[in-house]
């Protein structure tokens, strides 16, 4: 892995290409090593990524040529990661001076929300509510750019998997650096007026010296260069394997044959995979594929029709609807009805560290989130109350809703999962939290933890 990342900045565009191709990290790693060997460290040619999809994400505030930015110095990948880590929790970069990326994307919660609030507050006075639940930032390293027709590059698997990929719940951002511009400038997040305002703050922030060390003493002479450096460092940090895709959950240990799952966890895994019951794995991939450990998502954009969350302030306006890929936050697909109600399938790795579930955070327990799947069609009253079914998706878009198992049952059919199976699936999902210490290796570690705890 280390070899893949040395000289990372100069090869970053290759990494973006790998992401587009959705290669496994290991394969990307090997190819990246080969590319590193083949290419000189000279200035980069123009992006040589595959041709853009027919429908592309909207232009962002970030310059297109960010990877071609010429800095006085080319930092090593690990320097960029360290800088990015520090910037990620730098509150001085927000208008309020009190919000950093980490305030919403808490490292202790797999870079997801730190609390059970469906939406977080931001803005200059920290009183403006957001519109969506904060997603986890883990396991995004193979996320392809948004494309309306995705074909898995499996060779023999050429089925059109429909709209796939892109960052944010609606897939509207194509890269972590493009995405990072969003929260820095969003009026209800970090609320800076423009790029220059961010750079001015950065210049007098505790990270100014590290910025100069990484990119050169004159990095602040050119606001665009400093801005690009900031975004690249944040992006590099989010590509750091140890932080963002460690593959060290109990389930990973199970896949490596290091540990057994409990009977309940095994029953949960079986129900999760079973096409006639949970069928969860049809979207949340659970098996090793082409040598790569599963991401628990196929990155597809799908309409599943979760209930409206009336506690989100924006939803107090009866006319406000978050329709996902067709808007209002995403603008390039507005008016394309077939995209309404579609949200990107999130990874379920670390899902049990979350306090809110789905794009609108409508559930605050994992049991309820799983029960939604069992009851949506079999017992809609328990999901939507006595009001209208699919109460957050207007009738004219309801043809977009997924109707395959576990959905597609008629009211009064038996739910796809019993209450016991729901509990089993939840037990299984808890094995997807990173940071698991296998028993043998763990006996000493947990001994040390006990000793440390007893000192306090
Ligand atoms: C006030 C809370 C808040 C802050 C601060 C914040 N974010 Fe986010 N972040 C969100 C929300 C909410 C979303 C989902 C947005 C959407 O889908 O429209 C999100 C989405 C993302 C995503 C896409 C994840 C995915 O699964 O597609 C990335 C990457 C990200 N944020 C990185 C950052 C970085 C880097 C910073 C700091 C520069 C930051 N965020 C600051 C709330 C926040
Ligand atoms: C047809 C594809 C599909 C299937 C099948 C599916 N999911 Fe999902 N899952 C999604 C999508 C899409 C979302 C996000 C939807 C949204 O927020 O509106 C999601 C979100 C979730 C979430 C919330 C995660 C978060 O970060 O908030 C959980 C938990 C979840 N799914 C569990 C399951 C379980 C358990 C099953 C099987 C019973 C399952 N899913 C079956 C597509 C699917």
Write the layout of secondary structure elements.
Blueprint: H1 2-5, H2 12-21, H3 25-38, H4 77-88, H5 101-104, E1 121-122, E2 128-129, H6 176-185, H7 195-203, H8 208-215, H9 223-238, H10 241-244, H11 250-255, H12 263-273, E3 301-302, E4 343-344, H13 366-375, H14 380-384, H15 419-429, H16 439-455
Residues 99, 101, 103-105, 120, 122, 130, 132, 134-135, 137, 167-170, 176, 179-180, 183-184, 189-190, 234, 329 line the site of one heme C.
Folded structure, characterized:
The chain is mainly alpha-helical. The chain folds into 2 domains: 2-144 and 166-244, Orthogonal Bundle (Cytochrome Bc1 Complex, Chain D, domain 2); 250-432, Orthogonal Bundle (Cytochrome Bc1 Complex, Chain D, domain 2), CATH 1.10.760.10. Helix content is 33%, strand content 2%. The chain contains 16 helices and 4 strands. Strands 1-2 form a two-stranded antiparallel sheet. Strand 1 (121-122) and strand 2 form a beta hairpin. Helix 7 crosses helix 9 and helix 13 crosses helix 15. The two termini are 37 Å apart. The model is unreliable at 1-63 and 444-456 (pLDDT under 50). One heme C (HEC) binds next to helix 5 and helix 6.
């Amino acid at each position: 892995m280390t070899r893949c990342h040395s000289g990372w900045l100069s090869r970053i565009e290759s990494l973006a290409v790998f992401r587009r191709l959705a290669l496994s990290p290991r394969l990307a790693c090997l190819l990246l090593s080969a590319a590193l060997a083949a290419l000189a460290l000279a200035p980069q040619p123009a992006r040589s990524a595959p041709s853009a999809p027919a429908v592309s994400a909207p232009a962002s505030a970030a310059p297109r040529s960010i990877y071609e930015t010429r800095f006085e110095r080319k930092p090593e990948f690990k320097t960029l990661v360290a800088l990015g880590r520090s910037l990620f929790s730098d509150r001085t970069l927000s208008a309020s001076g009190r919000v950093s990326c980490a305030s919403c994307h808490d490292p202790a919660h797999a870079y997801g929300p730190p609390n059970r609030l469906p939406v977080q507050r931001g803005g200059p006075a920290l009183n403006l509510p957001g519109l969506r639940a904060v997603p986890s930032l883990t396991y995004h390293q193979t996320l392809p750019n948004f494309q309306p027709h995705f074909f898995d590059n499996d060779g023999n698997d050429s089925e059109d998997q429909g709209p796939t990929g892109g960052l944010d719940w609606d897939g509207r951002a194509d890269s972590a650096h493009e995405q990072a511009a969003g929260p820095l400038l969003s009026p209800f997040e970090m609320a800076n007026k423009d790029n220059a305002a961010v750079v001015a703050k950065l210049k007098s922030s505790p990270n100014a010296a590290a910025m100069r060390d990484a990119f050169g003493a004159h990095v602040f002479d050119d606001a665009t260069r400093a801005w690009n450096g900031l975004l690249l460092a944040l992006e590099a940090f989010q590509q750091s394997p140890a932080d963002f895709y460690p593959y060290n959950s109990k389930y990973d240990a199970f896949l490596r044959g290091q540990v057994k799952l409990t009977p309940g966890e095994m029953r949960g895994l079986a129900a999760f995979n079973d096409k006639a019951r949970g069928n969860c794995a049809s979207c949340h991939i659970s098996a090793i594929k082409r040598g790569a450990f599963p991401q628990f998502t196929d990155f597809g954009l799908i309409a599943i029709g979760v209930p409206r969350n009336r506690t989100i302030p924006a939803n107090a306006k009866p006319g406000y609807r978050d329709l996902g890929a067709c808007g209002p936050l995403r603008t390039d697909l507005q008016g394309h009805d077939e995209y309404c109600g579609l949200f990107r399938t999130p990874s379920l790795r670390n899902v049990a560290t979350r306090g809110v579930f789905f794009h609108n955070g409508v559930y605050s327990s994992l049991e309820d989130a799983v029960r939604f799947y069992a009851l949506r069609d079999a017992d809609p009253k328990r999901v939507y109350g006595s009001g209208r079914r699919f109460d957050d998706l207007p009738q004219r878009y309801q043809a977009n809703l997924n109707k395959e198992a576990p959905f597609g049952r008629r009211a009064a059919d038996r739910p796809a999962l019993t209450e016991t199976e729901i509990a089993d699936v939840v037990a299984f999902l808890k094995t997807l939290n990173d940071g698991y210490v296998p028993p043998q290796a763990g006996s000493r570690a947990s001994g040390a933890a006990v000793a440390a705890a007893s000192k306090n």
